[in-house]
User: Fold these one by one.
Assistant:
Number 1:
Amino acid sequence: MKDTRPNILFIMSDDHASHAMSCYGSRINRTPNLDRIAEGGMRFDNCFCTNSICTPSRAVILAGTYNHVNDVTTLASKMDNRLLTFPKLLRESGYQTAIVGKWHLGQGPEHEPTGFDFWRVLPGQGLYHNPEMIDAEGKHVFEGYVTDLITDMCLDWLRDRDKDRPFCLLCHHKAPHRHWEPDEKHAHMYDDADIPEPETFNDDYSNRASAAAAAKMRIERDMNDLDLKQPIPEGLTKAQEKSWKYQRYIKDYLRVVASIDDNVGRLLDYLDEEGIADNTLVIYTSDQGFFLGDHGWYDKRFMYEESLRMPFIVRFPEEVKSGTVNRDIVLNVDFAPLFLDLAGVEKPKELQGENFRPLLQGSTPEDWRKSMYYRYWMHKSHHNVYAHYGVRTLRYKLIYYYSDPLGQPGAVDEKHEPEWELFDLDKDPCELCSVHDDPAYADVVRELKDELHRLQAQVGDARYEKDVD
Ligand SMILES: [Ca+2]
């Protein structure tokens, strides 16, 4: 008998910020195929990651637990593949499962993908051109462009599937991760255009804790030859050089995104041709956001909006009204509970996320979360970003730079004292001025500290020793 539970097509890219998607109002590019998903379904405007970095975010998604629980706190962490994950539970319940593309949770028998009928992944970050990939049979080099290849392999697997059983396919693109290498087809997009610079391009990092000024992810200073791929023209002023670097960076980023968009279109076309679009939940998301010249930066890691926010669009015609928008707080830790609910599998007690299927159906429960907990662990490691944790509500964001590696990779700086930041996102959506020390916000600070500590207790994470009431 045919098993008619919904199919799940989970497309995730790497470092694709929502402000480079036209369905999110991008000022800098068009993404017509991603827009097909949003127009045919729901766009989530407040989907956040709990730790804005590749490896940890992927572990959160698979396991449905926070990083202090799944023990994948940093880029150097490797996930123990005996962990309970949603693909394992779906497979046990009769789904066909596959992952193709980026994994980045470690290699070898203890870390390679488990819970999949088929898996083929890139080692580490993988290459854009002629990438090596690893599967159960071993390593092979594939000729071509990585985004096309991943999509081809997904389509091959879909064509060969058992049509009497539902599938869960994880199509996980490497793109648009640094160093943004476009394919030939898109190499000359934007050649004759100037991409607008973001509002905070010339941020001077004043009026905040010291962390923003200390970060080494400035377009004007920290980009290397692999990022720029061309010699810097001579005779430019400092400001002209910064603008030139931004154009070099953002055009390649958008070219790489354009290839993702084309390839998402191929997958959507296949669902239409097969007549299974109505009963397939299609998601497009990214493991976290990215700074697209915002604050003068590239990269991520900070709890600031551009990096914290994940794009999340979902189409599921049987259940989700087309062209709708949700503004509730949804987290990457919630994805696994959603998938389990769709498959009719009971959520195991150890999963920490919440099933947000009612939100998809247009009815938010009264007690849905009003705040979220974030933690970035890699103190002064990559890009000299300070370790921090914080809480975001619909209006405010409180960040605590505890500034201690706590045994994780990173440098100890005895002189560095912890610092706080508070942003009123209604009045300061670009997060340019911390109001933590403004007496008018004293009550807000107190409430948010309580909320932060309540969330830490709820998820079972430890408070830093100097963070006292
Ligand atoms: Ca990433």
Number 2:
Amino acid sequence: MTYLRRMRPDQLLRPTPAGLYCESGGFYIDPTRPVDKAVITHGHSDHARPGHGSVLATRETLDLMALRYGAQFAGTTQAVRYGESLTIAGVTVSIHPAGHVLGSAQVAVAQAGLRIVASGDYKDVADPTCMPFELVPCDVFVTEATFGLPVFRHGDPDGEVAKLLRSVALFPERAHLVGAYALGKAQRVIALIRKAGYAAPIYLHGALETITRYYQSRGIALGELRPARAAQKADLAGAIVLCPPSATNELWSRRFPDPVSAFASGWMRVRARARQRGIEMPLVISDHADWDGLTATIVATGAGEVWVTHGQEDGLVRFSELNGRKARPLDLVGYGDEEEDADDTASPPSEPS
Ligand SMILES: [Zn+2]
Ligand SMILES: [Zn+2]
């Protein structure tokens, strides 16, 4: 007598010290240590590390890794498109947009009627610089939890950009320095500024140039951008300048006329963080889902089981259990939070002042 017994989720995917591991497929998702086979969700440096034998990821993620680490960042690479699925040793792997940054992907793994979706980092709101999040029904949903507490509600990013533009109009003699993470946030903020109708050149700190030019090369419209280093102080009165978050406090910022310091991050919801950093204009703009986004997504996947990783795990575990789902924190280590990260190691060194 034969019958098909559904496999247990942890037979398909399980947390290990090197990251989420699919034993039958022999690959890791976003491994934090060098491994033979890696599937990588997106280009942020804690998810995308160099030194793996082979890497499967979207074209954009592979390109961003090459920009950051050099062309030899892995033994071999394979680009995979959104919606494409392939079979690795009997495991079906497919890639779906995560809406987080350019090229970001959720990874679905399926075998014997069981499907697990590892979201990587994601957001469920519109972003002119990347494909929108795709809901992938699954049995087990592995969710990030960066902003996994009810206090985190990001609100409307267009409203935050309007606040910036009102200040620019009000203080034409001052430069506005907007701190933004180099991969994703900086380009999204520029695109939102353009969407609001601001057409003047926007200036870039040297550490943001490479990735921003890459976005433009992939067809993301960002308008006229100029390197800040080439500008005269007088040209920068009334200008918007994008820079890594740490640069707003550095010597570098002194070249600008009476600068207003802004910082675009989901953490700017917490007033004390803005104050600690000496930020005059906190802009609540996040590339991670907020509490409403995380909980709505968990429910919409239809998953009976939820695994929660990197961030505020407890709130989402409790939410899932109260809503009749099995849930567990994965306790994976090695993932940071790029929105928190003042020292953007993802970028080339800051230009000299
Ligand atoms: Zn990320
Ligand atoms: Zn992350």
